[in-house]
Write a structure and sequence with these properties.
Layout: E1 4-11, H1 15-26, E2 32-36, E3 39-45, E4 50-56, H2 61-73, E5 76-83, H3 87-96, E6 105-110, E7 117-125, E8 131-137, E9 152-161, H4 165-175, E10 179-186, E11 191-198, E12 201-208, E13 219-227, H5 230-239, E14 248-249, E15 255-260, E16 269-274
Parallel strand pairs: 1-4, 5-8, 9-12, 13-16
Antiparallel strand pairs: 1-5, 2-3, 3-4, 6-7, 7-8, 9-13, 10-11, 11-12, 14-15, 15-16
Length: 277
C-alpha cells in the first residue's frame, strides 16, 4: 500500500527565513520552490524523503489554510505524506479500514525558476490529529543540491507523540500497514516507543508514561536527520551560530548524536551518524 514517506510538511510564517534556516541545517538548497493561492513552498529533497516548508504570502485559499494552522499552534510539523503506487487501490483500502478518505484529487506544481511541472494524484485521511496524505506522483522530485560540509544524507526518523499508544499502533500498523519493528516500554526513559518502518526510515510513535492514557490528539513532534560525518556536521552547525549540544552516544548501537536547539522553525531536531571514534 505505502512504498515510502514522500514528504513531511512544516508550516512557518516566513518562507525566506525558513529556507535560510534549513539551508544551513541540512547543508542543501531547495530542489523545488513554488507559489500559488496565497502561499509559497520550498521542498528540500534529501534522498529518502523530503521536507516541505509552507508559509503564507498573500490572499488565497492556500494562504488562509496556512495562517489558520499557524494561529492554531505556531510553526510546526503538520502532515505526513506517504507515497503509494496505486492511489485507487489505496483509496479503497482506506475506506474498508474505516479511515474515511477524501475523494482522489489531481495536483500540479510549477517550479518558480525553471518552469518545470510535476503532477500527482492524492487523497487524505484522518490521523487522530496528524494530517495524513497519500500521493502517487508522476515523477521523482529532484534531489536538493549539497552546499555545506557534512550535509544531511536522509531522514532517520520522524517522531509522533500520542496520548493513546494502542490507538496509534492500530493506525500505523494495522490500518496503514507499516511494519512494526519495535515496541518497547522503558521506565528509565519514561516512555513507550514504537518504531514503524517506512522504506529505509522510521515513523517513531512515543507515549509519555507519566501522562497515562488519554483521548487527545496525536502530534507530529520532531525529526532526526542522518549525516555521514557526525563530528563535521556538529562543527559546521556550531560555526554557523546554531546552538548545538555536545556529541553523545546514540540509543542505536554504534551511533553518536547531537541536538540542535535553534534554527529549526521550532522543530525538536536531532542529528545522527556512525560512531567513528
Amino acid at each position: 500500500m505505502i512504498t515510502a514517506l514522500d514528504h513531511i510538511v512544516l508550516v512557518t510564517s516566513d518562507i525566506d527565513a525558513g529556507v535560510a534556516a534549513y539551508t544551513t541545517l541540512l547543508g542543501r538548497v531547495p530542489a523545488w520552490r513554488t507559489a500559488a493561492g496565497g502561499a509559497a513552498s520550498a521542498l528540500f529533497e534529501v534522498g529518502n524523503t523530503a521536507l516541505e516548508l509552507i508559509a503564507p504570502t498573500g490572499d488565497g485559499h492556500a494562504g488562509d489554510r496556512v495562517r489558520a494552522a499557524l494561529a492554531d499552534g505556531g510553526a510546526r510539523l503538520t502532515s505526513l505524506c506517504f507515497r503509494v503506487d496505486d492511489i485507487a487501490a489505496v483509496h479503497r483500502r482506506l475506506e474498508r479500514r474505516g479511515l474515511a478518505p477524501e475523494e482522489i484529487a489531481d495536483g500540479v506544481s510549477t517550479e518558480a525558476s525553471s518552469g518545470a511541472t510535476r503532477h500527482w494524484q492524492r487523497t487524505r485521511a484522518g490521523g487522530h490529529g496528524v494530517r495524513l496524505f497519500f500521493i502517487q506522483p508522476d515523477s521523482e522530485a529532484p534531489v536538493s543540491p549539497v552546499t555545506g560540509e557534512a550535509a544531511m544524507t536522509g531522514l532517520d526518523h520522524v517522531v509522533v507523540t500520542t496520548p493513546d499508544p494502542e490507538r496509534a499502533a492500530a493506525l500505523y500498523g494495522a490500518r496503514l500497514g507499516l511494519d512494526m519493528a519495535l515496541d518497547r516500554t522503558n521506565p528509565q526513559w519514561g516512555s513507550r516507543l514504537m518504531f514503524f518502518r517506512c522504506g529505509d526510515l522510521i515513523v517513531e510513535v512515543m507515549h509519555n508514561l507519566r501522562d497515562g492514557v488519554g483521548n487527545g490528539p496525536d502530534r507530529l513532534w520532531g525529526i532526526t536527520w542522518r549525516t555521514a560525518d557526525i563530528s563535521a556536521a556538529q562543527t559546521r552547525l556550531k560555526a554557523a551560530g546554531l546552538d548545538v549540544s555536545e556529541l553523545r552516544a546514540g540509543r542505536k548501537p554504534g551511533t553518536r548524536v547531537f541536538s540542535v536547539r535553534n534554527g529549526t522553525c521550532g522543530v525538536p531536531t536531532l542529528i545522527i551518524g556512525k560512531d567513528s571514534a
